[in-house]
Automatic annotation (TrEMBL):
Composed of two chains; the small (or glutamine) chain promotes the hydrolysis of glutamine to ammonia, which is used by the large (or ammonia) chain to synthesize carbamoyl phosphate. Tetramer of heterodimers (alpha,beta)4. This is Carbamoyl phosphate synthase small chain. Residues 1-178 are annotated as: CPSase. One of its GO terms (molecular function) is ATP binding. It catalyses: hydrogencarbonate + L-glutamine + 2 ATP + H2O = carbamoyl phosphate + L-glutamate + 2 ADP + phosphate + 2 H(+); L-glutamine + H2O = L-glutamate + NH4(+). The keyword Nucleotide-binding applies. Small subunit of the glutamine-dependent carbamoyl phosphate synthetase (CPSase). CPSase catalyzes the formation of carbamoyl phosphate from the ammonia moiety of glutamine, carbonate, and phosphate donated by ATP, constituting the first step of 2 biosynthetic pathways, one leading to arginine and/or urea and the other to pyrimidine nucleotides. The small subunit (glutamine amidotransferase) binds and cleaves glutamine to supply the large subunit with the substrate ammonia. Residues 5-135 form the Carbamoyl-phosphate synthase small subunit N-terminal domain. GO terms for biological process: 'de novo' pyrimidine nucleobase biosynthetic process; 'de novo' UMP biosynthetic process; glutamine metabolic process; L-arginine biosynthetic process.
Length: 372
C-alpha cells in the first residue's frame, strides 16, 4: 500500500483528524492517550501496559532510529494504534535492522501520520483520554459508521486486561554472577528490562502468570515477591489484591511497580480512580516524601491511588504511608508499609527507555530481602 493513502482518526466526541496511512492499512479501536517521551518509541510500542490504547506521540518526528532486535520490552507490539506527526523518511542508526514503518506493517499495527498532534494532545488534555479509532483503506467508510464503531467499543474503565498480556507459563531468568535471592515476579504485563535489573543484582526471577496461587508462590520458596506493571483498571483485580494480602500476611518482602503499586494500595484498603489523561512519558518528576529527593521518571498509567503526600493510614498489616507524589499534580506515586516490608512506586524504575534516576529501588528491594 502507498504511504500516501488517506487515513482518519475519529474520537468518541466526534472530532476527526485526517492524515495518511502509517504502518498497516485497515482499522483499529482503542483508548486515545498521549506519550511525551522524545525517544524510546520501540520500548513504548512493545510495553504491555499500552494494550488496547492508541498512542499519540508528542515528539514531532518519529522513526528516525528505525527498529532493532534488542530493545523490545515484550514479544510483540501491544499498542492498538499509533498516531504521529512526521514519520522519518529514512532510518539512521547503526543498530537498526529495519524501519518503524516496516515493523508496524509486519505486526499489522494500524497507524496515522501527518496529523496535527499538538491539536490532538491539547484536545485530550482538555477533554480527557477517550475512545478512538483509526480507519484507512476499505475500512474508511462514512463518518457515522466509523463513529458508531468507536463508541461501541469497551471503555478502559472496568477493563480487566492483565490476563490478556500475562505469560501463559512460568519462566525463569537466572542471576548474573552469584545467586543471592529468589524472587517471584507476578506478570501483569511485565517489561523485559525488569527481570534483567533483578538478575544484575544476583536475583533468580521466576516470572509467573497472573492467575498464580499463593500456594504456587510458596512452593518456589521466594525471598521476595514482585508485582509488575500492566494495563487495565486496577478495580477489576480483586483476586490479585487477595493474593497480595496473603503475601503481606506471611510477611514476605514485596515490591511493586505501576499496576503493582495500585494493587498494593488496594491491598492496603485504598481506592483507585481513572485519571483525566494520565501520565505517559519518560520525563515525569516525582518527589519522595521523607527525603525530598526528586527523580525524573518513566511513567505509563491512566489510573491512580487515592491519597495525599505523607499521609499515614492504618492497614491490617501495620501502618502504611503515601511515600511519593508527582511534582506536577500531586498524584500518588508510591505507597509503603512504615515497617518497610512492602513498598511500591507508580513509575518505572527499570526505565526502558530511560531515565535511570530510580534504579536504586532495585537495590532497596535487595537490602530488604537481605535483612528478612
Amino acid at each position: 500500500m502507498s504511504s500516501s493513502e488517506t487515513a482518519v482518526m475519529v474520537l468518541e466526541d466526534g472530532r476527526v483528524f485526517r492524515g495518511t496511512t502509517f504502518g498497516a492499512v485497515g482499522e483499529t479501536l482503542g483508548e486515545a492517550v498521549f506519550c511525551t517521551a522524545m525517544t524510546g518509541y520501540q520500548e513504548t510500542l512493545t510495553d504491555p501496559s499500552y494494550d488496547r490504547q492508541i498512542v499519540v506521540a508528542t515528539a514531532p518526528q518519529i522513526g528516525n532510529t528505525g527498529w532493532n532486535d534488542e530493545d523490545d520490552e515484550s514479544g510483540k507490539i501491544w499498542v492498538a494504534g499509533y498516531a504521529v506527526r512526521d514519520p522519518a523518511r529514512r532510518a539512521s542508526n547503526w543498530r537498526a535492522t529495519r524501519t518503524l514503518q516496516a515493523e508496524l506493517e509486519n505486526q499489522n499495527v494500524v497507524g496515522i501520520a501527518g496529523i496535527d498532534t499538538r491539536a490532538l494532545v491539547r484536545h485530550l488534555r482538555t477533554r480527557g483520554s477517550m475512545k478512538a479509532g483509526i480507519f484507512s483503506g476499505a475500512s474508511l467508510t462514512d463518518y457515522e459508521a466509523m463513529l458508531d464503531k468507536v463508541n461501541g467499543q469497551q471503555s478502559m474503565l472496568g477493563a480487566d486486561l492483565a490476563a490478556e498480556v500475562s505469560t501463559d507459563a512460568m519462566y525463569t531468568v537466572d542471576p548474573v554472577g552469584e545467586h543471592r535471592f529468589t524472587v517471584v515476579a507476578v506478570d501483569l504485563g511485565i517489561k523485559s528490562n525488569t527481570p534483567r535489573m533483578f538478575a544484575q543484582r544476583g536475583m533468580r526471577v521466576h516470572v509467573v502468570p497472573s492467575n498464580v496461587t499463593f500456594d504456587q508462590i510458596k512452593e518456589l520458596n521466594p525471598n521476595g515477591v514482585f508485582l509488575s506493571n500492566g494495563p487495565g483498571d486496577p478495580a477489576t483485580q480483586d483476586a490479585m489484591v487477595a493474593l497480595t494480602q496473603q503475601v503481606l500476611g506471611e510477611d514476605i518482602p514485596l515490591f511493586g511497580i505501576c499496576f503493582g503499586n495500585q494493587i498494593l494500595g488496594r491491598a492496603f484498603g485504598r481506592d483507585t480512580y481513572k485519571m483525566k489523561f494520565g501520565h505517559r512519558g519518560i520525563n515525569v518528576p516525582v518527589v519522595e516524601h521523607h527525603s525530598g529527593r526528586i527523580s525524573i521518571t518513566a511513567q505509563n498509567h491512566g489510573f491512580a491511588l487515592e491519597g495525599e503526600r505523607g499521609e499515614v493510614f492504618d492497614t491490617p498489616f501495620g501502618k502504611a504511608e503515601v511515600s511519593h507524589v508527582c511534582a506536577n499534580d500531586g498524584v500518588v506515586e508510591g505507597v509503603q508499609l512504615v515497617s518497610g516490608r512492602a513498598f511500591s512506586v507508580q513509575y518505572h524504575p527499570e526505565a526502558a527507555a530511560g531515565p535511570h534516576d530510580a534504579a536504586y529501588l532495585f537495590d532497596r528491594f535487595a537490602t530488604l530481602m537481605e535483612g528478612a
